Amino acid sequence: MLVTKIQEYSKKRYQVWLDGEVAFVLYKGDLRHYGIREGEELDETVRELIQKEVLSKRAEKRALHLLEKRDYTAAGLQRKLTGGGYSEEIAKTVVEIMKGYRYLDDARYADQYIRCYSGRKTRKAICAKLAEKGIEKDVIADAYERFDEEGNEADEEDMAVELLKKRHYEGGPIDKKEMDRHIAFLMRRGFSISCIRKAVASLRSGYEGYSEDFF
Q: Which residues contact 84 (CB under 8 A, 6 or more apart)?
């Protein structure tokens, strides 16, 4: 395989291209140790050695270091590794290794995330965020099923009421455009129209004779 290009990747690491494609990222000492020079051939056995004995082990150590600091989803850890210069193949392998160690568990991550943010975010918003993090829909659904079975249920109407109060709406007469802004804000946060309606009605109940409807 021909080393077609070697270019600086970060302060201490270099990206190596083989036959016109990105192959791996190595330290300068690695380039010297394996005799990798631009324009020269790289033996296939050396390439495999670098992949299996050098980069895979480094990626595993990197994953362990990341997981010591905080939890990751499988997709999140894979993105972190590929973003650090490791190949998709190595990143996927390391993710599976971390799953085997039980250091990486999307179901556990979903459970913890739901418990942490329930009461602060709507169910819709939490599900969207977990999906964004790469967690499968059935894993999220199972996590919520466990959450509900334990009797944990956030009152989203109360959450909406508190948010409206923070936006200085207490239920009195208000300009339609201003109310529309409040409604749009709550909808962006994942609240349904029916929930918003109930929250507004709850606040307006303190104003006798006030029944104007902006919905």
A: 62
pLDDT digits (tens, 9 = 90+) for 198-208: 888 888 886 66
Nearest to 180 by CA among 161, 159, 200, 202: 200
Query: How many whole angstroms separate alpha carbon 170 and alpha carbon 172?
Result: 6
Q: How far, in Å, CA of 39 to CA of 77, rounded?
A: 34
CA distance 3 to 29: 17
Per-residue three-class SS string for 98-156: HHHCCCCCHHHHHHHHHHHHECCECHHHHHHHHHHCCCCHHHHHHHHHHHHHCCCCCCH
3 state SS of 181: helix
Please answer whether residues 146 and 111 qualify as being in contact, where contact means their C-beta atoms are separated by less than 8 angstroms: yes
Q: What is the pTM of this model?
A: 0.71
